[in-house]
Amino acid sequence: xxxxxxxxxxxxxxxxxxxxxxxxxxxxxxxxxxxxxxxxxxxxxxxxxxxxxxxxxxxxxxxxxxxxxxxxxxxxxxxxxxxxxxxxxxxxxxxxxxxxxxxxxxxxxxxxxxxxxxxxxxxxxxxxxxx
Length: 131
Prior knowledge:
Blueprint: H1 5-25, H2 36-54, H3 63-84, H4 88-114
């Protein structure tokens, strides 16, 4: 698999998100993560950073890309609710949604980099940069 700078940058943001989740799980006291609302805000910023770096292509109609977009929309809605409602369930839901979107993105990039031909199908759309 050929990693691009986008893959490495989103992986670094993903690792930061995992650190945030572990900080909340183990109850460590960090100023930015003292409440569930602020922890959701930090995860939302990391998720938005991942989207901004990785980008998305609305013209790509593959099931993985559409699933990534749907997960991102749901994560954004849940994160917006989490900024108002202080709940660990919302925090962990946002974390799981962002993580699953990242996993789908990585799986898509792995498969695209392993393909030798340059043909697009319904399942896999060949894109010059990341998809």
